[in-house]
Design goal:
The complex is a heterodimer of chains A (408) and B (440).
Chain A lengths: L2 H10 L1 H32 L10 E8 L4 H17 L3 E7 L9 E6 L9 E7 L4 H5 L3 E4 L8 E4 L9 E4 H8 L8 E4 L6 E7 L20 E4 L1 E4 L2 E8 L4 H15 L3 E8 H8 L1 H35 L1 H9 L4 H38 L8 H25 L4 H6 L1
Parallel strand pairs in A: 4-10, 6-11, 7-9
Antiparallel strand pairs in A: 1-12, 1-13, 2-12, 3-4, 3-8, 5-9, 7-10, 8-9
Helix pairs in contact in A: 2-8, 2-10, 2-11, 8-11, 10-11
Chain B lengths: L1 H14 L1 H28 L11 E6 L23 H10 L4 E13 L8 E8 L2 H5 L4 E4 L13 E5 H8 L9 E4 L2 E9 L22 E4 H6 L18 H6 L6 E5 L3 H20 L9 E5 H7 L5 H30 L2 H9 L4 H37 L2 H4 L6 H27 L3 H7 L1
Parallel strand pairs in B: 3-8, 5-7
Antiparallel strand pairs in B: 1-9, 1-10, 2-3, 2-6, 2-9, 4-7, 5-8, 6-7
Helix pairs in contact in B: 1-12, 2-10, 2-12, 2-14, 10-14, 11-15, 12-14
Classes of the chains: A alpha+beta (408), B alpha+beta (440).
Chain lengths: 408, 440
């Protein structure tokens, strides 16, 4: 295949060639960055929360009555009721849990009155039933015992008698050293608190890709409190395959036990996950649609322009065929021409993709594009372009040699 | 003449239906994608209260000082987005602005008088009477409570029409009726008409694009009753026991807005804030130089990040995509026009001036753009519908297409395709009549 005649013919169609190359370059730049964002958001929405989410549901309970003594008694009664329901494995009450996007943080420190915190961490309250309800994996130490658990009115801050922390938090506090027998200080508290156990994983309540919580995603501390508040969560684990039934039963018996309350948003943890990551999944869906549309527009454009070139060069093709060029040679001509234009665009596209990524890192706090994305994106577009040119090329190849004679 | 060109355009489009539909599709898809995201972006960055946005100011006071930096909840300027109860009371007492209101969000349980209905939760907001006049809140019945009620002596509430309808049935004037909130009866003094500033500029902590709260209570009353904030609360120091310790603390959980209609008043208020912080330093509460800030609505929205990173990313990508579609259309229009050199030569030879050739092709390109724009509109509608389906209810509220946007879409499409056709048209106008005739 001779490149020289292709180049000289391209020189006559300079602008069209440049337009195609530019289009290819932009397509690659956008494609790579879109695919990267899609991949990142998918990974984000699949992050484990640490809880065995299957079979767990959450009830947001708000009391109508506001007297604190009543709240404590009601909470104890509710917990006893929930745990006694058929189909319930365990239940507890808490201020917050993963995937709710609502909770509080504290500085986890190694010294009292530290000026800067050692690690920022999310605060979860649970009694001795918390671990089993959420299905958290204890990797060292032990669970709370009932004598450690106290009632905590929501406004108060009290010193916990012990804490359980996540592996990631333990790593940040003790740099991989042994945790047994270690203590931590919670910010603004003067007494040290013993770490009695370490769980493998427990995500913070916030799920945003770049917002609050994203920098300390796995730093959680569990304090042995029963949370006494106007509004809080009951978390319940149902026996396998009994979730729907237990959810209905829990709602009914809680209302029957005490009508002066609002039970809002009773939902399985799996639904909380879907809600928490809805916008991330939405974004990936939108970007997928955009990418598909982008590739189709680019492919169709190539089909269109190549078809024009075929029409424009009918006579020349006829002459070449009359002079002995095979059909294959004609197809190859168009494919090579396409390859030259598209590879030029692809090279620009790879740099553009990296440039766009750099710009997005600066402005949108996006991560760095892995190096293999750009070449793979370029290759994909290259193959697509070759496919797109195939049909016009075959039409060119079917131009009869006699055409040259007839039209002159 | 215009009609003639239009007929010519229609004829030429029909003759090359395949390529024409390619061009129209390319423009349509590009316009559809970019308008879909732009609609969302515009809603996010919209001015929620255009008639007053330059006169309303959010107040920031640094009550943590330089050590607050370690809490990593502040911004680059080292300021918190909310203020403490102590400062809220201090600023309300001073009444240094024409109008002002401290405010915070809470959640209330409503028990309908009709025992058939179960109690339910509503978002509520504790405010001062100025809130309603300051933010031009429309009323269906009744109106704001009086200044004397700001003292918190009476169980009164202002509710939305939506809540009124839900509890009492539709289309009833419920002013004067009682509503049971948190187990206690409140007298309704006003029913708000539909009011939905997007973004919800006065409190962007949760559901930035969501509707305002459904119940409004006097601030002082809510504080006296110990109604906890349902928004965010940050503390820079230890909390003792009980509600009163929160009120005494330096925790920040209250928003504060002031109305300052003239720039002179704004300057004076800035001075006042500085003096206030200096006084706090003098009494030993702050041990750092005064650090305060006043931002109007637009500045506040930018500062608080009302437009999400995701939205900006989408707009960027969509416009990149539109550019690809335009390049594509340009290439196709070029090929299309250059394919018609014979026709142009004949017209030139028959006496058509360059200008007339240009007019003809501009009209043709505009026509293509118009059809592409129509397709784009359909795709935008589909796209927005799709966004509503896949996004959360909060973000999904931003997907309303208004007539202005629709007109804008068509205009952009026409302008884009004429723009893309300019160079090909210029090339077409250069065609020499004689050459082509000879060649033919």
């Amino acid at each position: 295949m001779q490149i020289r005649p292709i180049l000289s013919s391209l020189r006559r169609n300079k602008l069209s060639a440049i337009l195609i190359a530019l289009q290819i370059a932009l397509t690659i730049a956008i494609l790579c960055n879109c695919l990267f964002v899609i991949q990142q958001r998918l990974a984000l929405s699949q992050r484990p929360s640490g809880a065995a989410e299957e079979g767990v549901f959450v009830i947001n309970n708000q009391w109508v009555d506001e007297k604190e003594t009543n709240l404590t008694a009601s909470l104890h009664a509710d917990l006893a009721l929930l745990r006694s329901l058929p189909g319930v494995i365990d239940a507890y009450a808490t201020n917050s849990l993963p995937l709710t996007n609502h909770g509080s943080t504290v500085g986890c420190n190694l010294q009292p009155d530290q000026v800067s915190v050692t690690a920022r961490c999310a605060v979860y309250f649970a009694d001795e039933h918390g671990l089993q309800t959420l299905g958290l994996k204890l990797i060292s130490g032990r669970n709370f015992v009932s004598s450690e658990v106290n009632d905590l009115p929501s406004i108060d801050s009290a010193q916990a008698s012990a804490v359980i922390i996540t592996r990631e938090l333990a790593q940040q506090l003790f740099q991989g050293g042994p945790v047994a027998g270690r203590s931590i200080y919670l910010q603004f508290q003067s007494q040290r608190i013993q770490v009695v156990g370490v769980v493998d994983k427990l995500q913070v309540p916030w799920t945003s890709a770049t917002g609050w919580g994203s920098t300390f995603n796995d730093n959680s501390v569990i304090e042995p409190f029963r949370y006494i508040a106007q509004s809080f969560y009951y978390v319940v684990r149902a026996k396998p395959n009994q979730l729907a039934q237990v959810m209905r039963e829990a709602h009914r018996s809680l209302i029957n036990g005490n009508r002066a309350r609002v039970l809002e948003r009773i939902r399985p943890l799996s639904e909380a996950r879907a809600d928490a990551y809805r916008d991330d999944r939405g974004l990936t869906l939108i970007l997928t649609v955009v990418c598909t549309a982008l590739l189709s527009v680019t492919a169709l454009g190539i089909v269109g322009i190549s078809s024009y070139w075929v029409v424009q060069r009918r006579r020349q093709i006829g002459i070449r065929r009359a002079l002995g060029a095979t059909r294959r040679a004609i197809v190859e001509y168009f494919q090579t021409e396409n390859l030259i234009i598209v590879s030029t665009g692809a090279v620009i596209g790879v740099f553009l993709a990296l440039g766009l990524n750099l710009w997005m890192i600066r402005n949108y706090a996006l991560a760095r594009l892995p190096l293999y994305y750009a070449p793979i994106g370029a290759l994909t577009v290259l193959l697509l372009a070759q496919l797109a040119v195939l049909w016009p090329a075959q039409r060119a190849a079917s131009i009869p040699p006699a055409l040259a004679v007839r039209e002159s | 003449m215009f009609n003639y060109y239009l007929t010519m355009a229609a004829l030429s489009l029909k003759r090359n239906l395949a390529v024409t539909s390619l061009i129209v599709t390319a423009i349509g898809i590009g316009i559809g994608a970019s308008m879909t995201t732009l609609t969302m972006f515009r809603a996010m960055s919209a001015d929620p209260i255009p008639q007053k946005s330059a006169q309303l100011f959010a107040v920031q006071i640094d009550n943590w000082g330089p050590s607050g930096k370690t809490l990593d909840t502040g911004d680059s300027e080292h300021l918190q987005k909310q203020i403490s109860y102590t400062d809220a009371v201090g600023l309300m007492k001073a009444r240094a602005a024409r109008r002002q209101s401290a405010m915070y969000a809470t959640t209330l349980a409503v028990t309908p008088a009709n025992s058939q209905l179960e109690p339910f939760q509503v978002p509520a907001r504790a405010v001062y009477a100025d809130f309603f006049t300051m933010f031009d809140v429309p009323f269906l019945y009744g109106g704001p409570w009086g200044a004397q009620d700001d003292a918190g002596g009476a169980a009164i509430a202002i509710i939305t029409q939506e809540l009124s309808d839900r509890v009492f049935g539709a289309a009833i004037n419920t002013v004067g009726k009682l509503i049971n909130l948190r187990g206690q009866n409140y007298t309704i003094v006003g029913v708000m008409n539909k009011w939905n500033p997007v973004p919800k500029f006065f409190d962007l902590n949760r559901e930035k694009y969501g509707p305002p709260e459904q119940v409004f209570l006097p601030f002082t009353w809510a504080i006296d009753k110990g109604m906890e904030s349902s928004g965010s609360r940050n503390c820079a120091g230890p909390l003792g026991r009980g509600w009163s310790s929160l009120l005494r603390s330096e925790c920040i959980w209250i928003q504060f807005w002031a109305e300052l209609p003239t720039s002179r008043e704004a300057v004076q208020y800035r001075d006042f804030l500085h003096r206030y912080a200096a006084e706090q330093r003098a009494v030993g509460r702050f041990n750092w130089p005064p650090h305060t800030r006043l931002r109007d609505v637009r500045a506040w929205l930018v500062y608080s990040g009302a437009v999400t990173t995701e939205a900006r990313l989408l707009v960027l990508i969509s416009f990149g995509f539109l550019l690809v579609c335009l390049l594509n259309a340009m290439g196709l229009i070029l090929a299309k026009i250059l394919g018609r050199t014979a026709e142009i030569s004949v017209r030139r030879a028959l006496g058509a001036a360059r200008r007339e050739i240009c007019t003809q092709f501009v009209i043709e390109a505009g026509f293509i753009g118009f059809i592409g724009g129509l397709l784009g509109l359909v795709l935008t509608a589909i796209g927005l519908f799709g966004l509503r389906e896949v996004l959360s209810a909060d973000a999904g509220r931003l997907t309303q297409l208004d007539p202005v946007d629709m007109g804008l879409t068509l205009l952009i499409a026409i302008a884009a395709s004429v723009g893309a056709a300019l160079y090909p048209i210029w090339r077409a106008a250069q065609i020499q009549p004689a050459w082509q005739l000879k060649a033919g």
